Amino acid sequence: MSTIATAKRELVAYVWERFERYREGRRPFEARWNEAYHNTLGEYAPAVQGQWRASEQSGSRVFVRITRQRVREACRKIEPAMRNIRFDLVSLDDAPRCDTLAIKSEIERILAMARVGDRLTEMSWDAAWSGTGIVRVPVLAESHSTAFGRDPESGLWASTPISESYPAVETVPIWSFYPDPDAPDIEQAEGVIQFHRLHPH
Questions:
Q1: What's the Cα-to-Cα distance from 150 to each of 61, 155, 159, 163, 164, rounded to whole Å?
Q2: Where are the alpha helices (DSSP H) in the chain?
Q3: pTM above 0.70, yes or no
């Protein structure tokens, strides 16, 4: 067996061992997430519904209705703050104010290009019903546009493709995120795993 093939097998075994350990450490939270998700939809979790006999009532609907209403109310309060990001820049030296305003304008342009407000709003739904919201930054993205100008040789109008790289933001579903269960916080984790499902083309 070649050295490259051996290295690949060792890498796969290493990642799989980490994934199994992270997945087992997340299981206690999954039970709470599953119950909270169904309550948000206005229904009891399947495990709770199975405890009732067919001849009995399906339980009180007051609890799940209140839960659903509170989650939606929390989203209505969170979303405006997520969409309207406001900040100010303070210069630590005697830099001209016009330079500070130019930097702020560029940051606002990048935030708008990355649609940060939309991504944070998507995260607010998970945060409202589960208590956990995850975004991944920075994600390198690229925008494409077209500029038109006259060709100096022919004098005709010609199009020129323009590409620009910028730091984007990505919302990560809590079901696809596997942190280090032994770490007290994300900064001290030995690593995290984000699960991606590959679809055949």
A1: 68, 6, 9, 20, 22
A2: 3-40, 46-49, 62-83, 97-113, 116-130
A3: no
